[in-house]
Design a protein that fits this description.
- By secondary structure, this protein is mostly helical.
- It is built from one helix and no strands.
């Protein structure tokens, strides 16, 4: 065999090896994507359930914050009114002492 023939055989063997490697990688990727699709399909209801639960929790938290804000506003109004009354009586006593 000549050097040219040996070179052609080596190139052919390398090409076959590369082709087989590409096919094996393609099969591996296909298998991975298929399993990933099945996994996502199986976990979708669970993810939806968790998302709904989180949404419900956030809604409850918003309601709690709104209720707390209303309570704080009520206390502020009450204390404001009480201080206004105290200020009124304080000013009234000062006026009586001046006379």
């Amino acid at each position: 065999m000549s050097v040219e023939s040996v070179s052609l055989v080596v190139i052919a063997v390398c090409m076959v090896f590369i082709t087989v490697s590409i096919v094996v990688m393609a099969v591996g990727v296909y298998s991975f994507l298929k399993k990933l699709g099945e996994f996502l399909e199986n976990t979708e209801p669970e993810i939806s359930e968790v998302a709904d639960s989180v949404k419900d929790t956030i809604d409850v938290l918003k309601e709690t914050v709104e209720s707390l804000k209303y309570t704080v506003d009520s206390f502020v109004e009450t204390f404001s009114a009480a201080f206004s009354v105290l200020k009124f009586f304080s000013n009234r006593k000062k006026k009586k002492k001046k006379k």
